[in-house]
Write a structure and sequence with these properties.
- The protein is α/β, with parallel strands linked by helices and 239 residues long.
- Helices cover 31% and strands 26% of the residues.
- It is built from 7 helices and 10 strands.
- β7, α6 and β8 form a beta-alpha-beta unit.
- α3 crosses α4 and α3 packs parallel to α5.
- The N terminus is likely disordered.
- Bound molecules: adenosine-5'-diphosphate.
- Adenosine-5'-diphosphate (ADP) binds next to α1.
Length: 239
């Protein structure tokens, strides 16, 4: 299968150039990482616990800063980004966290709406957009349910709806199968693929070798802070 990547300089969404991250105390989490993720790609970032996956994610979100090297996201050099611009960076990155991070006292609608309210989007637009994204993830009938009235898979879909609310060019799913039943993992992967098919760059961070290998997609493998493989998986299922 031909690589469907378009990696020209203008279409690079995430770029790491010789990135090193050393935490205070001397823990080396990433060392000399070079990679490019192009617009519209679907990429797995695979690695064991402690490999450096969360650090990779935190550098993209600018929750951490590289010790050396360059991280560029959506054309912005994150070592030069101003503090006041960080929320704008994050708005362009839809992240589905492993623990979903839903607000327990808010129903599905409110959890998604909240992500829009904090950015001062008019109420009229919220009332249109939230049902649209809930429908997109198959949760139209659960808008009024609280997180603890939803299954793990449904909670994850609320988190995905919230990540999609600003139509971000990049969606990052952190261990998407970590907290849901195995049979639901295919469902969430199919949703991510559908989102990818309409042009969104999707990055799935996982320690699950089998998940990454099941699909014919690009797999970037990190081990001990190094990219040790970056291949198109051949022989997996085409989505
Ligand atoms: P993964 O997400 O793949 O499990 P991490 O990026 O969390 O990997 O961790 C990579 C390495 O960095 C590990 O050795 C870990 O102990 C270390 N590390 C991660 N976060 C911190 C931190 N805040 N302070 C010190 N060391 C850290």
């Amino acid at each position: 299968m031909a690589r469907k990547t378009i990696v020209s300089s203008s279409s690079v969404m995430i770029q790491f150039s010789n990135v090193k991250k050393v935490y205070p105390g001397g823990n080396v989490a990433l060392q000399g990482v070079n990679l490019e993720i192009g617009r519209g790609e679907f990429v797995f970032v695979l690695g064991h616990s402690g490999a450096g996956k969360s650090t990779f994610l935190k550098l993209i979100l600018r929750e951490e800063v590289a010790t050396s090297g360059k991280v560029v996201v959506g054309g912005r050099d994150l070592s030069k980004i101003r503090r006041k611009d960080i929320p704008y960076l994050r708005r362009g990155l839809g992240v589905v966290f492993q623990d979903f991070r839903l607000i327990p006292s808010m129903n599905a609608f409110e959890n998604v709406a909240f992500a829009m309210r904090v950015t001062n989007i008019p109420e009229k637009e919220i009332k249109k957009r939230v049902p649209y994204v809930l429908n997109l993830v198959g949760l139209a009938g659960k808008a009024r349910s609280l997180p603890d009235e939803l299954s793990g898979g449904e909670q994850q879909r609320v988190a995905l709806a919230r990540a999609l609310v600003h139509s971000p060019p990049i969606i990052i799913a952190d261990e998407p199968t970590g907290n849901i039943d195995p049979e639901l993992s295919v469902e969430i992967m199919e949703l991510l693929k559908a989102i990818n098919m309409v042009g969104t760059t999707v990055v799935v961070v996982t320690h699950e070798h089998e998940l990454a290998q099941r699909f014919s997609e690009r797999i970037i493998t990190i081990d001990h802070g190094n990219v040790v493989a970056d291949d198109m998986q051949i022989g997996g299922e085409a989505f």
